[in-house]
Amino acid sequence: KELLDRLQIAFTTDAPDIDESQVADESAHDYVLRLSLAKARAVASRQPHSLIIASDQCCILKGKINSKPRNHETAIQQLQDSSGDKVSFLTGLCVLDAQTGQYQLDAIPFEVHFRTLTLDEIERYLTKEQPYHCAGSFMVEGLGISLFKKLEGDDPTALIGLPLIRLCEMLRDFGVKLP
Fold first, then answer.
1. Is 81 a catalytic residue?
2. Which of 6, 68, 155, 159 is most exposed, with the fewest beta carbons within 10 Å of its own?
3. Catalytic residue selected from 14, 25, 56, 81
4. Is the pLDDT of residue 179 over 90?
């Protein structure tokens, strides 16, 4: 919502409530694309005259998808595993015209280079921010920025979960007037 507010367009939010489980042998790329489209279609069934925007993100460390930690212990483990390493994020984005069924779908990459973290630093961070619902166990838009030494990508909003640069391109393709 906060990211969409930046575009100064009218919108409402609607939770898709879908199963986000990964399918066996599904690549991270296919996973975020599938979930983004599934979320858009789920909302379109309730908003049949709308242009639907949906996204999904995953965190990839050493070739494996890291899910949202959901608890303190898992978040500690994820941040310890990420310490001193490069972590890739892939954000799926879908814009779907609910009336016509036409959609655009893309996956936008972003990389985070973690500095070497001590257990004490990880504990202090998690106590202050509690990012248990966030892929990678951090919130870059908050104190999580202190965990990194470098960020790499074309669109920093992709790391937050909604790549606005690509979204603007898609919206223009659907006739939405933006500056």
1. no
2. 6
3. 56
4. no
